[in-house]
Amino acid sequence: MTLADYMTVSALLFLIGVFGALTRRNIIGILMSIELMFNAANLNLAAFDRFLHPEGLIGQALAVFVITVAAAEIVVGLALLLAIYRNTDTTYVEDFHLLKG
Amino acid sequence: MIEYAWLIPLIPVAASLIILFGAKEDPRSPLPWIGIGAMTVCLALAVSILWGFVSGGVALPYEKNWDWFSLATTIGGQSFVWTMPVGVLIDPPAAVLLFVVSLVSLMVQVYSIAYMHDDTRYKRYFAFVSFFTAAMLGLVVSSNILVGFMCWELMGLTSYLLIGFWFEREGPCEAQKKAFMTTKLGDSGLYLALLLLYAKTGTFQLTQLHQHFALGLVAPAAATVAAIGILLGAMGKSAQAPLMVWLPDAMEGPTPGSALIHAATMVAAGILVVSKLYFVFLAAPLAMEAAAWIGLITAFMAAAMALVSFDIKRVLAFSTVSQLGFMLCALGCGGYTAGLFHLTTHAFFKALLFLGAGSVIHSVHTNDMRQMGGLSRRMLLTFATMTVAVLAICGVWPFAGFYSKDMILVAAWNHEKWIFWPLLLTALMTAFYMTRLLTLTFLGDDRDHERFHHAHESPALITAPLLVLAFFSLTAGMAVAHDGLAARLFPKPTLSVAADAAAATPSASVAASAANNPQVQTPDAEQELPDWLKFGIPGVFVPGAMLLAFFMYRGPKFEAAEGLRSAFAPIATLLDRRWYLDDAFLALVAFCDGVAALAFWIDANIVDRVFVDGWGLLMRIIAEISSFFDGAFVDAAVDGVGGLSTDLGVGLRSLVAEGQVQEYMMYAAIAVSLAATLILTR
Description:
heterodimer; A: 101 residues; mainly alpha; 3 helices; B: 28 helices; 2 strands
């Protein structure tokens, strides 16, 4: 297993995440796609740490931090989703265009 | 005692402030006695100094200076500390004047206790008198001529206050303004002269100035200009022609105040300053000559006016002007001793004359001598003392005026015969008009019976000062002329270096500069008058003039005099109108007013219209054009840019969808991938 393999997986994961985020109508799906992109980045962090600086754990520690922050962020996202759902009775993103000028 | 000389001007100032602020105004306030007490102390100090000098116990001149303020200054790259000293300089004339001024002021204040009683501003009057005297004493003792000038101006202020003491009435109000402005005209000359002296010598100290002149360090032209400025100041203060117009009007003040102004303080100050700065005149023969002629002209003009006036105080005022002319003439003729001697004797008898006239006015309540007459039968003491004063001013032996006037005539004789003869004529006119005053007032028949019957001798507080002054009018001349004391008391300053500066400066340079100094004058040998004049003047001419006046005016109607008056009506009118000097000044003022009005018209109609308004109009037109350009082009460009960007934004927005979040994300993703592609493929 070389670094390139890890990066290929990570790139694929990221692209899947992007595709999901751009095409899913449901907000929950979009949030899940964003999680995929996070995980792609985490995978990169761990892989670079393993192959470029094998003597330390800084990259892996950073991945753990990112996971923690992502968890906190997803909590905020889900809370917003809940509030939106209670106000509009829908989770489809095309119905939200309050910011349209 | 002389080390306390610096206190002399300060004591009356303190007294003045205590009187002014010590208590409320009260017609019977005891506070004026503070002023009298202060003046007694001054008089005691002055007597001790003068007596000490005369008896040889005190050496004069005495000088003591203190530092007033210092300034750091840089001249030619070097730093100096420049110090302004302030101090006292008591030379023999100053010692005499200290005595005279404080004595006259003391007498005036005692007299005023009775004269001013029940006046509504009783207390204030005494405060003014004390302050007035203090200013004069300050001028007498100051070693710094700039400080002296301050005192001089303070005197101007207090004379203003005293002349306009009864400011409810119009006359005093106008008179005080006239006096103030006329004297200021002269003061400006004096001030400029002092500044010039300072610019030339760098000092205001009299002794140092004298040294500069003695060493010939001041150019003759500068000395002449300075001397003329000083002369101008003296002309204003001492009421010399043509600035003499204020003095006759100054009679509007209280009579004892007039006595003070005329005898001891105000008018004496002009002569005093000339004498203090006499060395400037010695270096400027032209100014000396001018002083002599101005004095002569003044003496004659004023004496002529006194011949026709019927107001007792006016006659005295004219006589003061005339006598001051004598003094200035003497100073100008080189008769320093004579001029100052006459200043001293004149102070006594002129104060006496004014106080006596005040006593008469107090008793008959009029100034018009035609309504008096025969008052000797009612007011014997006043008459006797006035007679002494008149004899003194006429120059009858052995009264004070004889000696001093004789010295003036000798000085004039030695200087210039063309000055001597008119001066002699003026002296005879003096004898005439003073005898006329005495005859009209005290001798002959009572012309106004009602006033005559109400007349009464004045109280002791009024007559006592008269007696004291009469004593001095009788003896001062004899005492001072005796045994060469006059020359000791009033030593003529010289420009000869050996006398003054040899001790202070290395002798070689002094001798060199003295040899090169053309201003050093060798004193001429004093000539006596020819015998027929020497004995003829006091023996024949003066008594003749007096007898003539007596016989012309002793009757109830004095037809002879009135006949003369109508025979020479134009001259009489000329004299009554005071040589039209007032009219001349008024015409001058009217002319200046006219010039000012013309200038104003030009300013309002030409300068304002053309330059100010026209310029404004031009600016307005330019501004309108600019405004049009601004609106049509600049603003349009700004608005155009704004409108363009608005349209652009609206048009761009219509290209994208209806606020779909995923669309925006897609744009972001496309942008990021494009950027990434750019970076990675570079």
